[in-house]
Amino acid sequence: MLTLALAHAGLVTLLATGPSVPTPVPPPQAALDDATIVAIFDAANTYDMETSGLAEKRAKHDDVRALAKQFAGDHKAVRQQGRDLAKKLNVTPTPPKDDKSARDHADAMKKLESAKGEDFDRAYLAHEVAYHEAVINAINQTLLPAIKNPELKAFVQKVGPAFQAHLDAAKKLAQKYGATS
Q1: What is the average pLDDT value for the chain, to the nearest integer?
Q2: 3-state secondary structure of 26
Q3: What are the tens digits of pLDDT across the range 101-132?
Q4: Coil, strand or helix: which one is 179?
Q5: Which residue range(s) make up the domain with 75?
Q6: What angle, 0 to 180 degrees and rounded to 10, lies between the N-to-C axes of helices 4-17 and 117-138?
Q7: Is residue 77 in a domain?
Q8: How many angstroms separate the CA atoms of 66 and 55, rounded?
């Protein structure tokens, strides 16, 4: 099982650097717990709300803005559901030690903020494809196997298809506008 820090760092590094060929992950150093998984899940939704919020304002094409609006709304709703469940389960989200995700996300936002017009749309769409691929991979390979609480596991499984739908929609527009991931 991967450590939370490794899984989260890999997800956020992908966010900051853009799509790349996956590299092997070092052996795990510590198991994930539900509180850390909740924190990662919350951060992943927050970060996509922020990138999509930027795209709602900056995208050149109406269909890219509409996709961004949908993504921002969907992630806001899922984040709130996750927070409500954490409260119900009395789980306090605990980010991993030495978590650099906020800084990495800020770097990704700077990259997007520096792009304009068609370049912005392509950068945003490539980012969304890579981000959702990384999230789905982290959920399936790292987070779900580590979740102990059955309600939390059921919730993460329930929202999985929405992440896949986001990936599919982002890929469709990425292909339309020539965004490479």
Answers
A1: 85
A2: coil
A3: 888 899 889 999 999 999 999 999 999 999 99
A4: coil
A5: 4-8+33-177
A6: 160
A7: yes
A8: 9
